[in-house]
Amino acid sequence: MLEIKNLSVNYGYIQALRDVSLEVGKNEIITLIGGNGAGKTTTLKAISGLADKRGGKVIFEGRDITKMAPEEIVKLGIAHVPEGRKIFPSLTVYENLMTGTLGNRKLKKNQIQELLQQQYEMFPRLKERAAQAGGSLSGGEQQMLAIARGLMMDPEMIMLDEPSLGLAPVIVEEIFRMILRIRDNGKTVLLIEQNASMALSIADRGYALENGQITLTGTGKELLVNEEVKKAYLGD
Predict the structure, then answer these.
(1) CA torsion, points 135, 139, 144, 146, in degrees to nearest 10?
(2) What are the φ and ψ backbone dihedral angles of 172, each rounded to 5 degrees?
(3) Alpha-carbon distance 129 to 137, whole Å?
(4) Distance, first Cα to last Cα, the chain
C-alpha cells in the first residue's frame, strides 16, 4: 500500500532522515520505534506532505505522492493523527468528529451517519459525551476523539503519532485494543510509539529508527526478542 524509497529530510543544516526505505502492506499494523529525535514524526510528516523532502520517493497505492500538497494526500485516503491530539477544544465531541469528514468530500450523508455510529460503537465514551466541549474531556478521551476523527474520513490508512503519550497504563491498554480493532475493521495502521513493547506486541512488522536511519527491521515478534531492541528500547 505504501512504499518509501531512500527518503531524506533536512531541517536547515540538520539531516532528520537519511535514505529511509520502508513498506506498509494493506491491512497491516506497522510500527516505527526509536528514541526522541530519531526521525519517527518526521517520517509521518513527510508522508503527509508536511515536511519538505530533500530526496527519495513516497508511493501510495502505486501513485507517486512525493510532491503532492497535504490536502491532496488526505483525499487519497491517508489520515494523520498527530502527536498531542490537536482536537478543537471549543467544539463539541460531535462537531470534532464531523470535521474529520472534511478530508473526504465524496462521503454521502448516509455514509457519514454510518461512520459516526461506527465511532460511537468503538468509543462508547464519545457517544456519552457527544454534546460536551472537546477540551473538557480527559487526556485518554481526547486521544480517542483524535483517532475517531481520523477514522471519520474513512481512510485507507491511518497514521498514529504517539497515541499513548501521557496516558495512564489502563488507558494505554484500551487504546491499543482499539488499534487492533481498527486493523480488524479493514484499515491499515502506521504507528509511532515510544512504548516499544506494546507497539511491537500488536505490530505485524516494525522498523527501528536511530539518528534518522533505519537500523533494524523484522516482525513484531522478532523485534521483541531482539537483543539490540531489548537493550535500546525495552529496558532489558
Answers:
(1) 50
(2) -60, -45
(3) 8
(4) 34
Lowest-confidence region among 71-75, 78-82, 97-101, 230-234: 230-234
Distance between CA atoms of residues 179 and 188, nearest Å = 10
CA gap 205, 183 in Å, rounded: 13
- Distance between CA 56 and CA 18 in Å, rounded? 10
User: In which residue are the cell numbers 505490530 written?
Assistant: 203
Give pLDDT tens digits for 220-234.
Answer: 999 999 988 888 877
C-alpha cell of residue 224: 521483541
CB 88 within 8 A of CB 95: yes
In angstroms, the CA 145 to CA 125 distance is 9
CA–CA distance, 199 with 189 (Å, rounded to integer): 11
What's the whole-number mean pLDDT along residues 116-120? 94
- Helical spans, DSSP H, in the chain: 40-48, 70-75, 93-100, 109-122, 124-128, 139-151, 169-184, 196-202, 220-224, 227-233
Which position has the higher pLDDT, 9 or 235?
A: 9
C-alpha cell at 94: 460531535
**Whether the predicted pLDDT of 236 surpasses 70:** no
Neighbouring-strand partners of residue 158: 79, 189
| CB count in 10 Å sphere of residue 90 | 10
- The closest alpha carbon to 197, from 221, 214, 216, 227, belongs to 221
Q: Which amino acid is at 76?
A: L
C-alpha cell at 189: 495502521
Whole-angstrom Cα distance, residue 195 to residue 178? Answer: 16
